[in-house]
Amino acid sequence: MTTDLFVALLAGVLGLAVGSFLNVVVWRVPRGESVVSPPSACPACSTQIRSRDNVPVLSWVLLGRRCRDCREPISARYPLVEAGTAVAFAVVAFTVGPAWTLPAYLYGVAIAIALTLIDIETQRLPNVIVVGSYPVVAVLLAVAAWGSGDWSSLLRAAVGAVVLFAFYLLLVIVYPPGMGLGDVKLAAILGAYLASVGWGTLVVGGFAGFLLGGVFSIALLGARSAGRKTAIPFGPWMLLGAVVGMVVGERVWDAYLSTFT
User: Are residues 89 and 161 in the same domain?
Assistant: First the structure.
């Protein structure tokens, strides 16, 4: 087994556990509840979930998708979040390998999943996750820069965070109904991640969010599933745009620049 594959498998197992925790975060944070205590319980009968019934994905299958005590159905979202987080962790780990940047990227994946689900359900990006991630992301990117010796990536991250934050803040000032302050705060995190890779990644990732969100909005209008005043969560599109930037940003930017040379 290659080192990259081994790291990916470990990351996948970690992703299952993290995904289970993200289910708690997505349920409790919007309600202002602690994610630490009390222990997880069935939302229907309030019975505390037993340890043997709290194994990611497997418990949902073995319980027949129902609570052991009250037999109320358990939403398929729980195993999907757990499995999805595991797959995302494994893919990122296999792509990056045992690099110093891996912890930062895995943390980014985790908060992206949580924020996407929360924003879709509540149209909010909670400060406890977004602003609370500022020092975490800063430390993880600093450790990555120290480990790799690439201090320029940390400088780019700092500049990128400020630039994308300022750009979104300007948009809110010019047209307040267009997006919320949660999007502005999230922009700082995405700017740091994107710019740490490169300036092309920052430009492409930042633009892709608007492009994808715009296409989705036009599609809803065309299908008459939404009106001009319908509020559409923009956070998920910002996050998806950032993924596009991280994956193909530098190649797209280089191809764009090559058209002028």
Answer: no
Tell the residue number behind the tokens 């290659």, with chain if given. Answer: 2
pTM above 0.85, yes or no: yes
- What SS3 state is found at 41? strand
Does position 176 have pLDDT exceeding 70, yes or no?
A: yes
d(CA 97, CA 108): 16
The vertex-12 CA angle with 32 and 125, nearest 5°, equals 25
Do 213 and 180 touch, CB atoms closer than 8 A? no
Q: Hey, what are 30's tokens? A: 């919007």
Longest dimension (CA), the chain: 68
Residues 6+ apart with CB under 8 A from 13: 86
CA-to-CA distance for 213 and 123, rounded, in angstroms?
14
Domain with 206 in it:
99-261
Sign for the pseudo-dihedral over CA of 177, 186, 157, 88:
negative
